[in-house]
Amino acid sequence: MLAALLVGVCGVGGGIYAALQGHDWLGGVVATTTIGTLAVAFLKRNKENSNSSK
Q1: What is the mean pLDDT of each run of 10 residues along the chain (54 residues)?
Q2: Domain map of the chain by residue range?
Q3: DSSP state of 19
């Protein structure tokens, strides 16, 4: 969980930095991709844990 938090903060921070440097699209893509990837990984992990407990 701590690693996911670190990746998320760095990804969103990198996206904000890129946007502030004039690369609006790149910043949006980096931040969105980071959040989306972490969300999918988290949901997939929760689904696997719920299936194994049955």
Answers
A1: 92 97 96 95 86 69
A2: 2-45
A3: H
